[in-house]
Amino acid sequence: MNNFNNQSKRTIYLMNLISTLLLGFFLISCADVTRQGVAFGIRHDVPLAKYEQATLNKKQLDIPDLSPVIQFAYSVDGKSEDEEVIASGILINSEWILTAAHNFYVAEEQSAPVNPDRVIVRVGKNPNEPEAEYTVDKIVLHPTWITQGDGFTLGNDVALVHLSAPITNIKPVKVINHNDLEPLGKPVWFAGFGDYSMTKNQDEDSYSKLHLINNILDRRVSGIITEEDGKTYSGGLLAFDFDSPDQTHNSLGDDFIGEDEQLLGTGTSQSEALPLEGTTVEGDSGGALFVKKNGQWVVAGILSGGAADPYLDFIDGDYGDISIFTRIADVRQWIDSVIRR
């Protein structure tokens, strides 16, 4: 009798366990189905095409000239024909492109920076049909990134890429001066070649086109000091958050302050989403943040990364995401010193 009861209990336990596992699988599957086709990096109520079309709409929108924004592509191992890494950059001189250092070297993952010979530069808003392609002969990483690079924390995630031949048919972008202040609380534009290939109605086998997102600049951090070989370097950060249309997500204006947010200091953030509000995604790294100074759009930041967990149950690239940029004004003197060599 006791054996029968023990067997019955084991049977019931196994049946309950199987039921629980099946229910869990069902819920996970439902969650996956729910997420399929949901936009990331852009408003859920605005199609990706509008963010792409905005790059062509200079007559109706007050936007910067985006011709200098370029795409990088290279194979990690230097052997595979597949271009495994996609990144963004901005032409600041006929021979030099400004971008993020982590696009080419992360100390924890690599023994040495990427060989310039592997890198392809694509010009034009559609990298599937580039207007031109260029090769690279030199990549110059910020000196303290090589030895102390740690994401965006030190404000030194910046690099300069030298082209094998100059680009003569595109006017380089204007770069903010080292002593200029970016206008907090004012609209900014970000342009990059982030990967949206998994978004609904996109071709998984094609490169994503140049897109343009609008936001409000929320944070500015200046004067982060690093040292290398007896020299002192200044670094800094800029940041904005991705507000939701219903104003329920305003990460840089709410009471929850994550570890990465603490690096950005205090400030305010409006909760109202702009018509082309968005955030940055993989492939946007090194893309340009434009601010308006004296009636002109100038590059003030280079995308470095995003804050981890700006709120509980956060989904990367969704509302509430915080994009963090290397502040160019702080590293402008280093940039000038490299170009003058």
UniProtKB/TrEMBL annotation:
Q: Which UniProt keywords apply?
A: Disulfide bond
Its name, as the record gives it, is: Trypsin
Q: Where is the Peptidase S1 domain?
A: 88-340
Q: Pfam families per the record?
A: Trypsin
Q: Which organism is it from?
A: Bisgaardia hudsonensis
SUPFAM superfamilies on file = Trypsin-like serine proteases
PROSITE patterns from the UniProt entry: TRYPSIN_DOM, TRYPSIN_SER
Which GO molecular function annotations are given, in alphabetical order? serine-type endopeptidase activity
Q: Which GO terms describe its biological process?
A: proteolysis
Say if the entry is tagged with keyword Ribonucleoprotein.
Answer: no
